[in-house]
Amino acid sequence: MHSTLLNKFMDLMREYQSLQANYKDRYRERLQRQAEIVKPGISNDEVEQMMQNGTEYFADQMLSDEKHTTAKSALVNIQEQSRELKQLEKSIQELNQLFIDLAAAVDTASEDIVTVGSTINETVIGVSEGVTHIDKAEEYAMQRRRRLALLISSAVTVILVVVAIIAGLIAAKVML
């Protein structure tokens, strides 16, 4: 169970990293397209700088020109998306931490489950031995009761024989 959960966790982490890389690439391409609307011929270094520093660096340069009203709205859109991306990245990091905590909890719980399983096995063995001992004890008690009944019946027979002999002797004496 532990290894299955650990494998699932590792698969989810790989998928998460792949999605994060794809998303970052798509974001870079989108940012470059939008930046080219505002500033044609923008270099890759400037796009990288926009990704790292946010779009505020170019905002002042782009917004100072009145003829770029569409660029202004695109910039506002980019800034909003940047904030959303940062929030998404934060959420993904929290999710990653949650998975790590879950993996640790599963690992800890698996040790407890193994301990409980071995304790249950020991208990089952102990109970089966106890049942065997109870069966033997019942057999011994039955034998003891038979012996006691035999002893009592023998004692009663001996007592009756002695009483009969004594009664015979007394009856013979009385007749004499």
How much of the residues is beta strand, in percent? under 5%
Return the string of H and E elements: HHHH
Number of strands: 0
Give the overall form. Answer: rod-shaped
Our count of domains comes out at: 1
How confident overall, as mean pLDDT? 84
Largest sheet: none
How would you describe this structure to a colleague?
By secondary structure, the chain is an all-alpha fold. It has one domain. Helix content is 92%, strand content 0%. It is built from four helices and no strands. Helix 1 (2-38) packs across helix 2 (44-53), helix 1 (2-38) packs antiparallel against helix 4 (69-175) and helix 3 (56-63) packs antiparallel against helix 4. The longest helix is centred in the C-terminal third of the chain and has 107 residues, at 69-175.
